[in-house]
Design brief:
Thioredoxin-like_sf, Glutaredoxin domain-containing protein, about 50% helix, four-stranded mixed sheet, single chain, cytoplasm, redox-active center, about 100 residues, Glutaredoxin_subgr, 5 helices, Glutaredoxin
């Protein structure tokens, strides 16, 4: 779990993903289209990916665990949480506060 938290705190936006997950792809595109360049960790391509996914569950990722999105080192959650924040407009403020957006 420490490894996940350390990685999540090193950049403004961090996404833990799987390369074969369609919702992971959609969430990554959402950030790219906002002008944000997230750091992405594809867990299915990492040696300790399964362990990291279990750590995400222990941190509170529920439902479909992935994608797991961190903004400013804080867990936002999975795609449902991210889309809710995007629709109500609060995601943009979070991104600005984290230094991921400048406008």
């Amino acid at each position: 779990m420490d490894c996940v938290l350390k990685l999540a705190s090193q950049r403004a936006v961090v996404i833990f993903s799987k390369s074969t997950c369609c919702m992971c792809h959609a969430i990554k595109r959402l950030f790219y289209e906002q002008g944000v360049s997230p750091t992405v960790y594809e867990l299915d391509e990492l040696v300790n990916g399964r362990e990291m996914e279990r750590a995400l569950v222990r941190l509170g990722c529920s439902g479909p665990t992935l994608p797991a999105v961190f903004v400013g080192g804080k867990l936002v959650g999975s795609s449902k949480n991210v889309l809710t924040l995007h629709i109500d407009g609060s995601l943009k403020k979070m991104l600005k506060d984290a230094g991921a957006l400048w406008l």
